[in-house]
C-alpha cells in the first residue's frame, strides 16, 4: 500500500465548531478528536495488501477516516446516518482523490450492493479479495450490527458472499470483553459463542472514556475479528443463537438442570453427545457448544422462543 498523505485540512475540532455539529446522544455520538488515538485504531486493523477495501461505519466528523486514508487506503466507503456530517465528509472525499466514497444511510439497513456500487466493484471481475469493516461504532447499535454481520458471514450473504471480510470495531469495554471471553470466565455468554464460532477474536486496544467527546459513561475497546478458515458451526447461525439464548438464560445452572427444567427426558441429549451435565453453559468450549446445539436441534425438543 503506497502511502498517499492527505493535503492539509482544517482540524476536525474546528469543523465541528464551524458546522455546529453538537453530539446527539440518540445516535450514540461520542467523537474521538485525538489523531494519535485514531491512528492507533487504524493501525490495529492490520490492513492487508493493496487489494483491501474498507467499509467505515459511522465516520461522524471523520478523524478516524483521515487516519485510514493516511495509511494509503485506495478504496474506502464510509456509511454515516447523520446528514449533518455530509459537508465535512464530502470535503474529505474531495481531498482524498476519490479514494473515499460516502453513503448517507443506516448501516443496519443499507444494501450491501450499494456499498459495492459506491466502491465501483463488479463481481466476479474484481481482483479485490478482502473487505475490512471498521468503525468506532455507535454503542446503541453495535451489538445488533455485529449479530447481523456474523449472520451474513455464516450464510455468506451481502459483502460476505464474495470477500474475505475482517472487522475492527470499537465497542463498550464490557461488550468487547464478552466477545473475546475465554471458556469459564464471567463475561462468557451468547456473544462469545456466536463470534468465536465464526472468527478469531482479539481485544487489541482499550480506549478510556476520557478519549471521547462528550465523555461516555464507560470505557471502550477495539476488537479485531478475523473469520476462521472453517467455521465451527454445526447448525445454522439462527439455530445456534436460539440454543445459546436458551442455555445462557440459566447460566448459573448446570446443563443437566437446564435440560431437566425443559423436559424430564431432555438430559438424555447430554448423554448422547457425551457432555458432562455438571458443566455450566459458560464452561463449554466453542466446539462443544456447537456439538450440543446440533444434538438439541436434532432432538426436536421445543425450546422457548
Ligand atoms: N467515527 C467517529 C469518531 O470516531 O469520532 C464517530 C463515532 S460515533 C461513536 C458513532 C457515529 O455513528 C456517529 O457519527 C453517528 O451519527 C453514526 N451512526 C449512528 N447510528 C448509525 C447507523 N445506524 N448507521 C450508520 N452510522 C450511524
TrEMBL record:
<comment type="function">
    <text>Specifically dimethylates two adjacent adenosines in the loop of a conserved hairpin near the 3'-end of 18S rRNA in the 40S particle.</text>
</comment>
<feature type="binding site">
    <location>
        <position position="32"/>
    </location>
    <ligand>
        <name>S-adenosyl-L-methionine</name>
    </ligand>
</feature>
<feature type="domain" description="Ribosomal RNA adenine methylase transferase N-terminal">
    <location>
        <begin position="37"/>
        <end position="229"/>
    </location>
</feature>
<dbReference type="InterPro" id="IPR011530">
    <property type="entry name" value="rRNA_adenine_dimethylase"/>
</dbReference>
<feature type="binding site">
    <location>
        <position position="136"/>
    </location>
    <ligand>
        <name>S-adenosyl-L-methionine</name>
    </ligand>
</feature>
<dbReference type="InterPro" id="IPR020596">
    <property type="entry name" value="rRNA_Ade_Mease_Trfase_CS"/>
</dbReference>
<dbReference type="InterPro" id="IPR001737">
    <property type="entry name" value="KsgA/Erm"/>
</dbReference>
<dbReference type="GO" id="GO:0034246">
    <property type="term" value="F:mitochondrial transcription factor activity"/>
</dbReference>
<keyword id="KW-0808">Transferase</keyword>
<keyword id="KW-0698">rRNA processing</keyword>
<keyword id="KW-0949">S-adenosyl-L-methionine</keyword>
<feature type="binding site">
    <location>
        <position position="106"/>
    </location>
    <ligand>
        <name>S-adenosyl-L-methionine</name>
    </ligand>
</feature>
<comment type="function">
    <text>Mitochondrial transcription factor that confers selective promoter recognition on the core subunit of the yeast mitochondrial RNA polymerase. Interacts with DNA in a non-specific manner.</text>
</comment>
<protein>
    <recommendedName>
        <fullName>rRNA adenine N(6)-methyltransferase</fullName>
        <ecNumber>2.1.1.-</ecNumber>
    </recommendedName>
</protein>
<dbReference type="Pfam" id="PF00398">
    <property type="entry name" value="RrnaAD"/>
</dbReference>
<keyword id="KW-0694">RNA-binding</keyword>
<dbReference type="InterPro" id="IPR020598">
    <property type="entry name" value="rRNA_Ade_methylase_Trfase_N"/>
</dbReference>
<comment type="similarity">
    <text>Belongs to the class I-like SAM-binding methyltransferase superfamily. rRNA adenine N(6)-methyltransferase family.</text>
</comment>
<dbReference type="InterPro" id="IPR023165">
    <property type="entry name" value="rRNA_Ade_diMease-like_C"/>
</dbReference>
<dbReference type="GO" id="GO:0052909">
    <property type="term" value="F:18S rRNA (adenine(1779)-N(6)/adenine(1780)-N(6))-dimethyltransferase activity"/>
</dbReference>
<dbReference type="GO" id="GO:0006391">
    <property type="term" value="P:transcription initiation at mitochondrial promoter"/>
</dbReference>
<dbReference type="GO" id="GO:0003723">
    <property type="term" value="F:RNA binding"/>
</dbReference>
<feature type="binding site">
    <location>
        <position position="58"/>
    </location>
    <ligand>
        <name>S-adenosyl-L-methionine</name>
    </ligand>
</feature>
<dbReference type="InterPro" id="IPR029063">
    <property type="entry name" value="SAM-dependent_MTases_sf"/>
</dbReference>
<feature type="binding site">
    <location>
        <position position="30"/>
    </location>
    <ligand>
        <name>S-adenosyl-L-methionine</name>
    </ligand>
</feature>
<feature type="binding site">
    <location>
        <position position="80"/>
    </location>
    <ligand>
        <name>S-adenosyl-L-methionine</name>
    </ligand>
</feature>
<keyword id="KW-0489">Methyltransferase</keyword>
<dbReference type="GO" id="GO:0005759">
    <property type="term" value="C:mitochondrial matrix"/>
</dbReference>
Amino acid at each position: 500500500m503506497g502511502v498517499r498523505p492527505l493535503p492539509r485540512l482544517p482540524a476536525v475540532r474546528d469543523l465541528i465548531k464551524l458546522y455546529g455539529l453538537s453530539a446527539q446522544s440518540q445516535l450514540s455520538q461520542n467523537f474521538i478528536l485525538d489523531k494519535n488515538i485514531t491512528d492507533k485504531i487504524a493501525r490495529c486493523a492490520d490492513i492487508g495488501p493493496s487489494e483491501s477495501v474498507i467499509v467505515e461505519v459511522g465516520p461522524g466528523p471523520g478523524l478516524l477516516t483521515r487516519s485510514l486514508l493516511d495509511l494509503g487506503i485506495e478504496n474506502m466507503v464510509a456509511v454515516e446516518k447523520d446528514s449533518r456530517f455530509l459537508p465535512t465528509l464530502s470535503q474529505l472525499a474531495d481531498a482524498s482523490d476519490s479514494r473515499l466514497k460516502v453513503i448517507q444511510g443506516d448501516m443496519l439497513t443499507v444494501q450491501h450492493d450499494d456499498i459495492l456500487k459506491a466502491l465501483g466493484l463488479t463481481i466476479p471481475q474484481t481482483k479485490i479479495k478482502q473487505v475490512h469493516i471498521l468503525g468506532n461504532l455507535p454503542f446503541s447499535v453495535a451489538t445488533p450490527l455485529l449479530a447481523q454481520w456474523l449472520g451474513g458471514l455464516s450464510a455468506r450473504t451481502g459483502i460476505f458472499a464474495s470477500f474475505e471480510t475482517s472487522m475492527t470495531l470499537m465497542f463498550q469495554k464490557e461488550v468487547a470483553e464478552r466477545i473475546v471471553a475465554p471458556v469459564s470466565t464471567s463475561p462468557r455468554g451468547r456473544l462469545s459463542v456466536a463470534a468465536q464460532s465464526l472468527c478469531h477474536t482479539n481485544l487489541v486496544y482499550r480506549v478510556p472514556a476520557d478519549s471521547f467527546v462528550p465523555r461516555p459513561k464507560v470505557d471502550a475497546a477495539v476488537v479485531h475479528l478475523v473469520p476462521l478458515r472453517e467455521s465451527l458451526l454445526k447448525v445454522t447461525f439462527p439455530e445456534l443463537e436460539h440454543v445459546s439464548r436458551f442455555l445462557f438464560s440459566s447460566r448459573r445452572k448446570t446443563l443437566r438442570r437446564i435440560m431437566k427444567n425443559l423436559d424430564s427426558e431432555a438430559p438424555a441429549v447430554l448423554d448422547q453427545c457425551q457432555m458432562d451435565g455438571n458443566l455450566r453453559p459458560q464452561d463449554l468450549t466453542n466446539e462443544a457448544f456447537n456439538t450440543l446445539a446440533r444434538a438439541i436441534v436434532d432432538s426436536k425438543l421445543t425450546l422457548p422462543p
